[in-house]
Design brief:
308 residues, alpha/beta, Trna Endonuclease, Chain: A, domain 1, six-stranded mixed β-sheet
């Protein structure tokens, strides 16, 4: 991912300009910019993922697939690297999993670098958007390079398929979680606030946030929602009215849901579905089948036929 990004930055002045304007004040020099991948520093023996230097800018990029962060000791070593290349604009950039930017910013507060070093957190999806914008202009070669980058990053950077009609169906309970208000069950969370959350690790939860979520309880399908947006958080505090002030050891996906829509007939759960087991079904089949299990089975048959 970092090699692909470096290659595209070195081949597309528009992509490089957009990236620089995102991480340092607009207008920083780029005509003499030098890009280095996995640059070794003899003093501390470490490597930087991407390093960009120009006459007035010095940018170090740390690229991550998830939300892991370098140690405070490693971050302090970056201070020494910045000191070796005097520049008006300096930035330490963390490229991170989509949706986790807020939690990464919070965890980076343990390191307060001296001015003029800025700390900037960028989701991979931002680079996809920048690459798409850059692919609309320039020479055919430049447009091809950044277009290929956008396609590649979209496939490997844990991004949602917003064109998918697949629905992730989960069971909700009215049982109150430990530490939550007595009037805020999982059902209330969805019905009253149009939000839903689930852990980032463990269980049968999707690793990439679905485009649609459906909720079942009382033996039937209750509603289907489009997932309008999401973020990854380590506390629900302040995210919606009545949310408790808790701190989670493991971060959670926090989904904001669109308005509910429902089939024009009752869709019972049907046989062969364990009490709390999640499942996937195509949107049109959930809306037309008599049971959720029928929609699930028809979806499996459809996928099997299309792959055969």
């Amino acid at each position: 991912m970092t090699a692909a990004l470096s290659w595209a930055l070195s081949r597309s002045p528009r992509l490089l300009r957009g990236f620089l304007d995102r991480v340092v004040p607009e207008g920083a020099a780029m005509g003499d910019a030098v890009l280095e991948l996995q640059r070794h520093d003899a003093a501390d023996g470490g490597f930087t993922d991407i390093e960009l230097r120009s006459s007035d800018a010095h940018v170090i990029v740390e690229a991550k697939r998830g939300w892991g962060l370098p140690s405070v000791g490693q971050l302090r070593r970056y201070e020494a690297r910045f000191a070796t290349v005097p520049a008006t604009h300096q930035a330490f950039v963390v490229l991170t999993q989509n949706g986790v930017e807020a939690i990464v910013r919070k965890r980076l507060t343990a390191w307060v670098p001296p001015p003029p070093i800025r700390v900037v957190v960028v989701g991979w999806s931002e680079l996809v958007t920048q690459a798409r914008n850059a692919s609309r202009q320039g020479s055919p070669v430049e447009r091809h390079v950044v277009g290929e980058l956008a396609t590649y990053l979209r496939g490997v950077a844990d991004m949602r398929d917003t064109n998918s009609n697949s629905v992730h169906v989960v069971s909700l309970t009215r049982r109150i979680w430990a530490g939550w208000p007595s009037d805020l069950s999982p059902v209330d969370e969805v019905e009253r606030h149009r939000i839903y959350h689930y852990p980032t690790t463990g269980g049968n939860y999707p690793k990439i946030v679905p485009n649609y979520m459906a909720f079942r309880y009382d033996g039937k399908l209750q509603a289907i929602h489009h997932v309008d947006s999401y973020e990854i958080v380590d506390s629900p505090s302040g995210l919606f009215p009545g949310a408790p002030d808790l701190q989670w050891e493991q971060p959670a996906y926090f989904l904001r849901l669109g308005p509910p829509f429902r089939p024009n007939h009752e869709v019972r759960t049907g046989p062969g579905i364990f009490r709390a087991a999640p499942l996937t079904a195509d949107l049109d089949l959930l809306l037309t089948c008599a049971t959720i299990s029928e929609a699930r089975d028809a979806t499996k048959a459809r996928r099997s036929n299309s792959s055969g």
